[in-house]
Predict the structure.
Amino acid sequence: MITFLSGGTGTPKLLRGMRELLDEREIAVVVNTAEDMWLSGNHLSPDIDTVMYLFAGILDTGKWWGIRDDTYITHDLVARLGIDEFIAVGDQDRAVHVARGEMLRRGMRLTEATKALCRSLAARATVLPMTDSPVTTYVCTQKGEIHFQEYWVKHRGDVPIDGVVRRSSEPPVATDEVIRAIEASDAVVIGPSNPVTSISPILECAGVKEALRRQCVIAVSPFIGDAPVSGPAAALMRAFGKEASSAGTLSLYEEFVDVFIQDIRDPVAVEGALRLDTLMVNRGKSLDLAKNILTLIYGC
Ligand code: GDP
């Protein structure tokens, strides 16, 4: 088994390749939940949904979120009724959020709710929320702290930020399922997800770093030069006090990483890093990178 640490875009692109090469039951994905939020009474878990939909074969891989060919009838009517949902949630996607909200209100752990949803959607990989207790990433702006989703989805990242904070009523602890998956794996792969908003929240869950130190860990950089392949990672890295680059990314992982992979195009020299083509612009490129990583792990 291989365990992946994932957000909602970079690592899922790698998982797109992995699921063609591995039995999905041999894949566990520990997923960031620090972007979760309640919207119109329903529970959004954007990164869990992306990973779950990928394995269910229904992900919209044009956007890397939501369900392919979804409709927006409810979202449009809700807007006409005067409710400003700043995230355009599709109708089928919303059904998942309704179901998860209901499960959580009935007292299910997020881990159990995710398992039930995966079963219903026929996603066979093991999708594991990093923790069962709520934790949220906020960014610091001149007008105060705002939820990361508000920063990125509502304001399109077009707001100066000078800090990143995680808020939770209790310190987040990795679930037993997460630790067991890491321990039972042949290797752990940290995909090219946002180091600040996707991977660091997982690393901050008590127990994860210790488990990673005992494992073979391979990490893939989401940066080429001083820019990420997509998204707001550069501004977030700087607000997090880190250099926006592969070197800055490695500085967050170096206490446990065994192999660090940088793109062949990356002008930033990182000593000891392995160079591969990490630009997963299509299914074939995802497959190639997945093959290269499996060769590293299994030497075949
Ligand atoms: P989010 O939850 O939607 O923010 O998604 P992730 O955190 O999983 O992934 C976002 C990161 O993926 C960004 O920092 C991108 O630079 C990175 N990314 C997206 N596509 C690729 C790719 O093809 N190759 C690499 N190396 N990084 C990518």
Notes: The mean pLDDT is 97. The domain at 2-67+94-133+171-231+242-298 is CATH 3.40.50.10680 (Rossmann fold).
